[in-house]
Design a protein that fits this description.
With about 240 residues, this protein is an all-alpha fold. The chain has helices at about 1-15, 20-40, 55-75, 80-90, 95-105, 110-130, 135-165, 170-239. It is elongated, with a radius of gyration of 28 Å.
């Protein structure tokens, strides 16, 4: 089956404008690679197998457990709640969880200002990681139709040039040349459509994750400020 697929792909490239069809196939590969890589990073791996009851149940349990551990940590910051939150982040692998793991690395350092700066740095780093490759995917997805159009224009120019040099006008030869020319545009649209759909889904998912990270970052920074103020009040009372 795979050999047959490659054979058909080779015939498709031969029928079209060769100088455009090869770059289009390369663009298709790049779009698929970027889309799969972004889906793998932005979504929890088990979310792709939600139709299986076991995966759906375990995903829901880990998601609820993650939210409970985060709430418990914000209510009481201690070694036990921190450990539970770290384990929950390891089970529920999402950018939101990875952001919290970055924040927990600096929880043992003294000074609320330092912890707040580390939280801001973790937020910025995770937001940059979420947006990685999205502009590149957008560029390739929107370039594919233009490449197909270029192949069509090139094929039409070659067809009409051949008609001018030939002695007669064969309708079959003319229709065959136009079909080959339009094939490049068709392939360009087919290559571009999945990329544009994936781009819309990934962009929306990235915006949702960035909003969740922003809210959690504000909660963590406010929590550190309140903890610092309570420590200062306690120190003054003791004095």
């Amino acid at each position: 089956m795979i050999l047959d697929l490659f054979e058909r792909l080779g015939k498709l490239i031969e029928e079209g404008t060769l100088g455009v069809m090869v770059p289009l196939m390369g663009t298709c590969f790049v779009i698929c690679y970027l889309a799969v890589d972004r889906f793998r990073y932005l979504y929890e791996p088990r979310s792709f197998f939600r139709f299986i009851p076991t995966f759906r149940r375990s995903l829901l349990e880990d998601k609820v457990g993650f939210q409970k551990c985060l709430t418990s940590f914000l209510e009481a910051d201690n070694a036990e709640t921190r450990k539970k939150l770290e384990l929950a982040c390891q089970k529920y692998q999402t950018p939101h969880g990875r952001f919290i793991q970055r924040c927990l690395l600096g929880q043992g350092r003294r000074g609320s200002k330092i912890q707040q700066l580390e939280t801001q740095q973790a937020e910025l780093s995770e937001n940059l990681a979420i947006e990685t490759s999205i502009p590149l995917l957008s560029t390739f997805a929107r370039t594919a139709p233009l490449m197909g159009l270029m192949g069509t224009v090139t094929g039409m120019i070659a067809t009409f040039s051949a008609m001018m040099l030939s002695s007669g006008t064969d309708p079959k030869a003319l229709s065959s040349g136009i079909r080959i020319a339009l094939l490049a545009t068709n392939v360009g649209l087919v290559v571009s459509l999945p990329g544009i759909v994936a781009l819309g889904i990934l962009s929306r998912r990235g915006q949702v994750l960035q909003e969740e990270i922003r809210k959690t970052s504000l909660l963590l920074r406010n929590h550190k400020t309140e903890s610092s103020n309570s420590d200062l009040k306690g120190a003054r009372i003791e004095e």
